[in-house]
Specification:
Length: 532
């Protein structure tokens, strides 16, 4: 062990959403260290659209929306339906607008914009058809100068070599801006390739971290506190098999290095945990490389289970759709993992495969077997291993919905979320992520075109995720709690290292990253107020 022990006011473990908390600390003059396990900054946030679900915040006011936070509170209470999380919800709703106001005082963060993404539980009291999601503005890569090279690439770039061009958007814009703001305070330091090994405990208080960098173990002290913001355990096979069978970390869209290091370190010092069986689930479309990629907004075709039967509104908000796959797989005795996305040539010509469009060419899909093609439904049923009679009946029933535009089984196309996919979908954070969709003349519902133009196709859908959502239990100051409810002095957690304030539901676009930023902010405020 090195005898050289450095000391900081605040140590942040992880460089995704926790980077904003690090900026908040450094902007207050606190000497702040961010330790990052990999050679790039950003974690899973860098893969994201960087939506932040911040009801009542200034960008919504600027957009002319009369955002009623009390109405949102009613929505959260009803959607989450868990009294034990109400205090966390209240802290979240109160802090989000304050955080945006503070960030926008720094030129690196001006100005967030509202993106009209409906709340995910449309029938719940208080739900908004325009939502409460705000996005950071894009940033020129050249503006970041040498810091550009420190950012994690987007998932399409890492997976498919997609050229993002000179403008960074979504999560990479947020991370690039946060990193720049953090380092320019003059009080922030970043250490890459530095993995958390354990927490230092002295006199019942967390006094710092023990890390490993280049094979050398080092102790670093934190005078005011340690903020664990290192993501979840989505890529740790042991923990996934223990808490979430039959799901596998290979199916996750979370950052590859998220293996639960911070979770284990917290547990080792007596932290309580919650929601370890949960994740921010998404349907994953299996690509030619054999791995899934977050898929949402299915505009055509149907998903069928191992019995050849349709089982869900395929355009349903992604977390709900993926949860339904998992629930039915465990609860019905019929295999739903994998599910099969069945569509025809008309759908392929109109919408292509996958979302966003940075995906391999059609011949790669067919050659790899990720996409199966058949001249008849009977041949397709054989290729995907489902009963032909059941598949035929399922398709014929679905086709009867096209003339009326009404999905009598699962009501596809009826909610504000579904209707967002009727035409081109505007994602302010990333203009590339727009459907190249065309209207559907002659059909009343563009999400319910019949499946009747051969050849027919089938792709594979599995339950993926954008991170686990169970972790260390925290209070309204983001302090990590013991099983008896007492806080562990000096230890804080946020993001997917902490158990989600939204419990088992996903209320609206930007809840995961919004939570990461808010509770990192509240952690720093507590560190500051506790000692000033």
């Amino acid at each position: 062990m090195s005898s050289n022990e450095d000391a900081y006011d605040v140590i942040v473990v992880g460089s995704g959403g926790g980077l904003v908390g690090a900026y908040v600390a450094a902007s207050r003059g606190l000497r702040t260290l961010v330790v990052e396990k990999t050679d790039r900054v950003g974690g899973t946030v860098a893969y994201s659209g960087a939506g932040l679900w911040f009801p009542g915040s200034a960008p919504l006011t600027r957009a002319g929306l009369g955002d009623d936070v009390e109405q949102v509170r009613t929505y959260l209470r009803s959607a989450v339906d868990d009294p034990s999380r109400e205090a966390l919800q209240d802290a979240y709703l109160a802090a989000g607008p304050r955080l945006i106001d503070e960030l926008e005082q720094n030129t690196w963060f001006q100005s967030f914009v509202h993106g009209p993404v409906p709340d995910y539980y449309a029938s719940t009291q208080g739900a908004s058809p325009t939502g409460h999601t705000v996005f950071p503005p894009p940033v020129e890569a050249a503006e970041l100068k040498e810091r550009r090279a420190l950012l994690r690439e987007s998932l399409p770039t890492e997976r498919f070599g997609f050229d993002e061009g000179p403008v960074l958007s979504g999560g990479r814009a947020l991370i690039g801006r946060a990193l720049s703001a953090f380092l320019e305070t003059g009080h922030g330091e970043l250490r890459l390739n530095t993995a958390l090994e354990s927490l230092i405990v002295e006199h019942g208080r967390i006094a710092g971290v023990e890390v490993v960098s280049d094979g050398e173990r080092t102790r670093i002290r934190a005078r005011r506190g340690v903020l664990l913001a290192a993501g979840g355990f989505e890529h740790d096979r042991e923990l996934r098999e223990k808490y979430q069978p039959p799901l596998t970390g290979e199916w996750s869209d979370g950052a590859p290095a998220n293996t639960g290091d911070a979770l284990r370190a917290g547990i080792a010092v007596g932290a309580d945990t919650d929601l370890l069986d949960e994740a921010w689930f998404v349907p994953g479309l299996v690509h030619p490389d054999g791995l899934p990629l977050f898929h949402t907004g299915t505009r055509g075709g149907i998903w069928v289970n191992g019995a050849g039967e349709r089982f869900v509104n395929e355009t349903r908000p992604y977390d709900q759709a993926a949860h339904e796959i998992v629930r039915l797989h465990h609860g019905t005795g019929v295999s739903h993992i994998p599910a099969h996305w069945v569509f025809d040539q008309r759908q392929l010509d109109r919408d292509g495969i996958g979302f966003p469009p940075a995906t391999p060419a059609l011949d790669e899909w067919l050659a790899s077997g990720a996409l199966k093609k058949a001249d008849t439904l009977e041949e397709l049923a054989r290729l995907i291993g489902v009963p032909f009679d059941a598949l035929r009946r399922t398709v014929e029933e679905f086709n009867t919905y096209a003339p009326t535009g009404v999905d009598e089984r699962f009501h596809r196309g009826e909610t504000p979320w579904d209707q967002m996919f009727h035409h081109i979908v505007p994602f302010p954070a990333d203009p590339r992520q727009n459907f190249p969709a065309t209207p559907a003349p002659g059909w009343p519902n563009p999400l319910l075109l019949p499946i009747d133009e051969p050849p027919f196709y089938a792709a594979t859908i599995v339950p993926s995720d954008i991170g686990t959502k169970g972790g260390l239990r925290i209070d309204t100051h983001a302090r990590v709690l013991r099983s008896d409810g007492r806080p562990i002095d000096g230890l804080y957690a946020t993001g997917n290292t902490a158990a989600a304030m939204s419990g088992r539901v996903y209320p609206g676009a930007g809840t995961p990253i919004g939570s990461s930023l808010v509770f990192g902010y509240l952690a720093v405020l507590d560190m500051t107020e506790a000692t000033d």
